[in-house]
Amino acid sequence: MSEAAVVPHSSNEAWTLPSRGVVGMLCLILAEAAIFLIFVVAYIYYEGKSLSGPTPQQVLKLPIFATICLLSSSITVHFAASALHRGTRNMCSLWLAATVLLGGIFITGTGIEWYELIYHEGLTIQTNLFGTTFYSLVGLHASHVIFGLIMLLVTLLFSLSGKLSARHAYRVEVLSLYWHFVDAVWVVVFLVVYVLGR
Amino acid sequence: MATQAPVNEALDPALQVAPGNSVLQILHAWITTVDHKKIGLMYIGSALLFLVVAGFEAILMRIQLAIPNNHFISPQSFNRLFTMHGTTMVFFVGMPILFGFGNYLIPLMIGARDMAFPRLNAFSFWCTFFGSLLLYFSYLGGNGLAGAGSAPDVGWWAYAPLTARPFSPGHSTDYWTLAVLLSGVSSIGSAVNIVATTISMRCPGMKLSRMPLLVWLYLVMSMLAFVTVSPLTAAQIMLMLDRYLGSHFFDTQAGGSAVLWMHFFWIFGHPEVYVLVLPAFAFANEIIPVFSRKAIFGYPAMVAASVGIGFVSLSVWAHHMFTVGMTAGANTFFVFATMTISVPTGIKIFNWLATLWGGKIQFKTAMMFAVGFLFQFLVAGLTGVMLAAAPFDWQLGGSYFVVAHFHYVLVGAILFMLFSAFYYWYPKITGRLLSEKLGKWHFWLFVIGFHLTFDFMHIPGILGMPRRIYTYEADRGWMFWNMVVSSGAFVQTIGTLVFVFNLIWSYFKGAVAGPDPWDAWTLEWSTTSPPPPYNFAVIPMVESRRPLWDIKHPEDFDQHYE
Questions:
Q1: Does residue B562 contact residue B549 with C-beta atoms inside 8 Å?
Q2: ipTM here
Q3: Is the pLDDT of residue B199 over 70?
Q4: Is the pLDDT reported for residue B7 higher than 70?
Q5: Which of A2, A23, A39 sits opposite B234 (nearest CB)?
Q6: Which residues contact B311 (CB under 8 A, 6 or more apart)?
Q7: How far is CA A83 from CA A74, A100, B200, B366, in A?
Q8: Which of A82, A140, B35, B508 has fewest C-beta within 10 Å?
Q9: Per-residue confidence at A5, pLDDT binned at 50, 70, 90?
Q10: How far is Cα A23 from Cα B193, in angstroms, rounded to an integer?
């Protein structure tokens, strides 16, 4: 907690330091980004090196709708945090619900895509290097989305049951940082896997 | 909350109704604590326990290697011993003990009452403790209870494809992977805590440029930990996917690459040794000035050098892979990058020497270990520069020369500085001084043992003795040197036992220390010994790098020299 300058000394300036929740979340984001980076490096390194089986060009389709949903959810979660900051809890609930819905659509889209790939295209994590690196990278991202959705859902439940107020806005903001990170990772994954990798 | 509140409001009323001391209540207090001091002590205690265990593993190996064609330990057991020794020492001794000291000292040194996230702190400790238990449970569970001695045997670096299912059946490798994963999660948690505490909880007036250098170095170490531990976590996830879901990350038969594991592991492994050594530098930055009676020379350069070391260390990893057959261009890049890191490191050594120069040196035990650190770290760095030259490494990589080099840093620099930190801060933690007499016995026994073992270990390396072998033929000419090396191990053991005895004896019979036995200058020495649970009744405000010097010498404020 930051301490304002106090007696017994003479300083008159406020002693404000960055908030620890934001610093902590940024550090976590740095560490998680490093994990994702290694999986992206593995993906890029193994591009074109599969010995057999389906290739990205053959089986991947651009997940445009799911991507738009996920990226919009960053906007809605930002609105949720601002709404709580202003004290309008019902608006916060609304925007949080929108975020959960959009994130849920994204995950469902991933699930449908994977169902197609596994059962109709015959691509599993065991099939070849493309399968290995694709499912691990996209799956790692999806697991982070699911974790974020759980946290957002918990927050939504607190908001709906009337337990959130403006003094919790800071915590929702820290959570929204995590959610922005998840979206940013998706931008990278989308570019590497679906755009540049095909 | 620093206000003009009357002093008695700063006292915690709960202390006055503290419950009685039944064993169960004491255990409960320690298991459920979120106090950074207790957590720090648990980290240190658990690390010391595993230091003894891993040291015992080393003794067994040294007995086996003392004479040629020895049959004291089987080859399979020997593989498990060096794997467990390395894994334990790095992940369950080194990281915990350094995070333990950091946890204890950082809030005290920045005028805070606890770390930024006390519950995360507790979680991190219990994660690493559970990981260490999991690793040692592998002796029972790795091959099922019927198999005797089935700990991981793949080396602490667990190269692919040895770790693949066909070549490492059973679960011994999985115990390694999961235990180290837990240690990694714990390290990230501790690092998050340290960075958030350092940035967000400094007392008023403590600008970043006034922080003790120990806090700076832990900040750099934690930032480095984020990008260091994560590649290992990623690689271990890949390994588990390979072993259990049939993926092909390191499977050459499907077009995968075993060398990729080496890259990912060493992208972790090299910066990891800097994560281990930066806290040793942190201790040196606090201890050397106090016992030279001089402020540290070149504070800004020390900060810049430490940050520089952090960055450069991320670019040198493939010097562990010179013998793998990378291209000439790659080899050359890593040779130059590795040599570059000696520049900021050299700056630090020169600054420590400049601190000593003209000072009034007091050879307390803590200072003796610090001087030992200075000399030995220099020598370790010199053999490191030798190994940085790829053609030299082609001859001596994978030999005992490398083993001697890294133990010189790990034992000669890091462990020596840890001993020094124990002698320096034990009075603060317990309220009693460690016995100087026993301390000097500890020091001389350990120095002699250390040099017997690790100086002479370079020679079998030069004579061609490879690493990771469980025995050797009699006609190689290595026996005499191995004997000397093994005898040094016993001398170090005796020294360590003296130290452990000192720790216990002094707790009961040591001289009472008071708040500031060394006449030091940083904030932790302004609290009682041991500090109260809340650290500071009133949050202090500082105006220079050495707040206690200012209080003791009001005619000569440090601030004038900033």
A1: no
A2: 0.92
A3: yes
A4: no
A5: A39
A6: none
A7: 14, 16, 26, 56
A8: B508
A9: very low
A10: 9
Residue B17 has pLDDT above 70, yes or no: no
Query: What is the model's pLDDT at position B146?
Result: 53
Radius of gyration of chain A (CA): 21
DSSP state of B435: P
CA B68, chain centre distance (Å): 33
User: Which residue is closest to B246 within chain A, CA to CA?
Assistant: A126
Q: State the nearest Cα–Cα gap between B506 and chain A, in angstroms.
A: 37
| pLDDT-derived band at A197, boundaries 50, 70, 90 | confident
Taking the Cβ of residue B239 and every Cβ of chain A, the question of whether any pair is shorter than 8 Å is answered with no
Domain count, chain A: 1
pTM, rounded to two decimals: 0.93
B561: confidence class by pLDDT, cuts 50, 70, 90: confident
Residues of A within 8 A of B245 (CB-CB) are 125-126
Tell me what the mean pLDDT of segment A103-112 comes to. Answer: 96
Mutate which: B222, B541, B550, B557, vs A, most A CBs within 10 A: B541
Out of 3.30.565.10, 1.10.287.3510, 3.20.20.70, 1.20.210.10, the CATH code matching B30-207 is 1.20.210.10
Residue A10, in any domain of the structure: no
- In 3D space, the residue among B367, B470, B349, B461 whose CA is nearest the CA of residue B416 turns out to be B367
Across the interface, do A132 and B241 touch by the CB < 8 Å criterion? yes
pLDDT, average across residues B226-237 = 96
Who contacts B270 (Cβ-Cβ below 8 Å, separation ≥6)?
A: B313, B316, B317, B319, B320
> What per-residue confidence (pLDDT) applies to B457?
97
What range defines the domain where residue A167 resides? 35-196
For the record, the structure tokens of B133 come out as 């238990």
Half-sphere exposure of residue B495, counting CA atoms within 13 Å on the CB side? 24
A173, part of any domain: yes
B195–chain A Cβ distance below 8 A for any pair: yes
Among chain B residues, CA nearest to A11: B205
Whether residues A17 and B247 touch (CB distance < 8 A) is answered with: no
Question: What percent of chain B stands above pLDDT 70?
Answer: 95
Q: Considering the domain boundaries, does residue A17 fall inside one?
A: no
Task: Identify from A6, A27, A43, A130 which residue to disrupt to test chain B contact, counting B C-beta atoms within 10 A and taking the largest count.
Answer: A27
pLDDT at B417 over 70: yes
Listed as own residue / partner, the contacts of A188-196 with beta carbons closer than 8 Å and 24 or more positions apart are A188/A36, A188/A40, A189/A36, A189/A40, A189/A137, A189/A138, A189/A141, A190/A63, A190/A67, A192/A40, A192/A43, A192/A44, A193/A43, A193/A56, A193/A60, A193/A134, A193/A137, A193/A138, A194/A60, A194/A62, A194/A63, A195/A62
Residue with tokens 């304002």: A4
Segment among B93-102, B136-145, B390-399, B494-503 with least mean pLDDT: B136-145
In a domain, A119, yes or no: yes
Rg (CA), chain B: 24
